[in-house]
Amino acid sequence: MAISEDRGHRLASVTGTATSDSTSKEAASSLNAPTVSYAGPLHSFNHGRGLTKSDAEGIPPMSKARRIALVATLTGAAFLNTLSSQSVVIILPSIGKELDIPENRQQWIVSSYSLAFGCFLLLWGRVADIHGKRLVFILGSAWVTVVTAANAFVPNEIAFDIFRALHGLGAAANVPTAIGILGVVFPPGKAKNYAFSCYAAGSPLGNAFGNIFSGLVAQYSNWKWVFGVSAIMAGATTVAGLVFIPQTPSLESSRDKGGGGPSPINVKPSIDWLGTFLITAGLLALMYALTEGNVVGWSVPWVPVVIVVSLTTILVFGVWQRYLEHRKSTAGTSLPPLIKVSIFANVRFTAAMVATGLFFASFNTFVIFATYHFQNYEALSPLQTALRFIPLGVGGAFANLIVAQLLHRVPAIFLLLCGTIAASSSSLLFAVPIPPGTSYFAYGLPAMLLSSVSADTVWPCLTLFTSQTLPREDQAIGGALINAVGQLGRALGLAISTAVQTAVMARARGVPIKDAGGMEAWEPTTLRGLRAGSYMNFGLGIASLIVVAAAFWNMGIIGKAETTSSHQAAAGGTRDVERGEATSS
């Protein structure tokens, strides 16, 4: 099948033909592949040759070693983002004790980071597309370095939460720009497959090693070292970004060098501040209500009110973006939308966003509920809990290597089905009534391995699809969008599963939900609540499976390089993304 936009927009062809076999050395050699060539309108792709001197924009030639270093640098940002979030979970009791933070407010140590990260992704994505992805990535990484180090020295709860939020603000700058950089540096093909697979491995690896790292620190040292080491890693990422990330074309530089004509390249780049305010405020209010709902209770009057107001604000944002996209004005004075909502007319793109949200609602909540099971129910130490997550990281590393080889050989639907089935199965193993005291190797180990396979299969497929669906000037905003959807999915999944867990525990104890109480070691009621939450996670995984099965059933290989013939074929059978009109290819 072939997907394209008319009026010179970017063509993204998806075929069902596998490429020839490759050797084990392809991963390194493919990173030396030529970059994408752009000639004519900004959205048009001319794959198969590098950028030439005649092109309006260009990326300096890069050696194989520098390409590998570039991918490692960007993957490090994704790894550090997840590690910074997950490593704090295990040391919450230590932080709370030293800073005198009550248990019912300790969740804000995690939530303040997540809220800021999720709500500012779209703003930073747009800024990166306008002013340069390299600049925003480096500034974001430097910001993360400073505020992470400061977290180790703050004296009280309020200051600690503020710096955690500032940390999330910086991470929101470098994570989506990393996807944007990969999207413009690597053309479709094996090199891009390896690059996106490596990048996608960063998040699950950070999740797994965040547990291990913080468990070791909690057992043998002071919790402040978690932030100290994270700051050192962030500083190294900043320096590596300065050295290895090339100058990528931005809308601002493209306009300065572009000629006349109606192309978007000649429209003065600017930021839709009203839209930025609407989406940031809407997401902030929604995620705040979802986070606090399980703490104060869903029956508290302000919680549903805030949810309704936030959803209304997000709806107004969508209407405003639609208006900006279709408003007629003179070139150089029109205000471009933060997000081109017409892209959602592409059914598969919309399905990819929905599947991303549902998948991370299942995957992320599985990791949290598994932590509850080991640490709260089985009363294991932080280190013992962390050791049980090692297969999640190791399995993810191996899955990443395999998926990178399969992206240009196997139709995407098979990879997505395997990933979503694995995600559902991992939660199911913690939901079924396995007798307490059963060996970890009988259910915990298989669940961790399945979870690692799921994350390192689904995430690279969906990020690669997103990158190849959007035009060049929207690569960073595309990375921001898919990360924001994933972050919202995490918040929704945790809120829903926790609500189910709390309701089951309250009913078993014969008390109102607000008086359900906490989890107790080896208590049958606690186990019943955790299993109920895991069943909810299983359901979310099945929902993501249904979405990908329905939307991507006849989808071919997304990781195959486009040739001239396939590019021309794509023009013959197109899907007009803006109007949603399709013809079969």
Automatic annotation (TrEMBL):
<feature type="compositionally biased region" description="Basic and acidic residues">
    <location>
        <begin position="575"/>
        <end position="585"/>
    </location>
</feature>
<dbReference type="Pfam" id="PF07690">
    <property type="entry name" value="MFS_1"/>
</dbReference>
<feature type="region of interest" description="Disordered">
    <location>
        <begin position="564"/>
        <end position="585"/>
    </location>
</feature>
<feature type="transmembrane region" description="Helical">
    <location>
        <begin position="225"/>
        <end position="245"/>
    </location>
</feature>
<feature type="transmembrane region" description="Helical">
    <location>
        <begin position="386"/>
        <end position="407"/>
    </location>
</feature>
<feature type="domain" description="Major facilitator superfamily (MFS) profile">
    <location>
        <begin position="70"/>
        <end position="568"/>
    </location>
</feature>
<keyword id="KW-0472">Membrane</keyword>
<feature type="transmembrane region" description="Helical">
    <location>
        <begin position="136"/>
        <end position="154"/>
    </location>
</feature>
<dbReference type="InterPro" id="IPR020846">
    <property type="entry name" value="MFS_dom"/>
</dbReference>
<dbReference type="GO" id="GO:0022857">
    <property type="term" value="F:transmembrane transporter activity"/>
</dbReference>
<feature type="transmembrane region" description="Helical">
    <location>
        <begin position="349"/>
        <end position="374"/>
    </location>
</feature>
<feature type="compositionally biased region" description="Polar residues">
    <location>
        <begin position="14"/>
        <end position="26"/>
    </location>
</feature>
<feature type="region of interest" description="Disordered">
    <location>
        <begin position="1"/>
        <end position="26"/>
    </location>
</feature>
<keyword id="KW-1133">Transmembrane helix</keyword>
<dbReference type="InterPro" id="IPR036259">
    <property type="entry name" value="MFS_trans_sf"/>
</dbReference>
<feature type="transmembrane region" description="Helical">
    <location>
        <begin position="535"/>
        <end position="553"/>
    </location>
</feature>
<keyword id="KW-0812">Transmembrane</keyword>
<dbReference type="InterPro" id="IPR011701">
    <property type="entry name" value="MFS"/>
</dbReference>
<dbReference type="GO" id="GO:0016020">
    <property type="term" value="C:membrane"/>
</dbReference>
<feature type="transmembrane region" description="Helical">
    <location>
        <begin position="198"/>
        <end position="219"/>
    </location>
</feature>
<feature type="transmembrane region" description="Helical">
    <location>
        <begin position="414"/>
        <end position="434"/>
    </location>
</feature>
<keyword id="KW-0813">Transport</keyword>
<protein>
    <submittedName>
        <fullName>Drug resistance protein</fullName>
    </submittedName>
</protein>
<feature type="transmembrane region" description="Helical">
    <location>
        <begin position="68"/>
        <end position="95"/>
    </location>
</feature>
<feature type="transmembrane region" description="Helical">
    <location>
        <begin position="271"/>
        <end position="290"/>
    </location>
</feature>
<feature type="transmembrane region" description="Helical">
    <location>
        <begin position="440"/>
        <end position="465"/>
    </location>
</feature>
<feature type="transmembrane region" description="Helical">
    <location>
        <begin position="107"/>
        <end position="124"/>
    </location>
</feature>
<feature type="transmembrane region" description="Helical">
    <location>
        <begin position="302"/>
        <end position="320"/>
    </location>
</feature>
<feature type="transmembrane region" description="Helical">
    <location>
        <begin position="166"/>
        <end position="186"/>
    </location>
</feature>
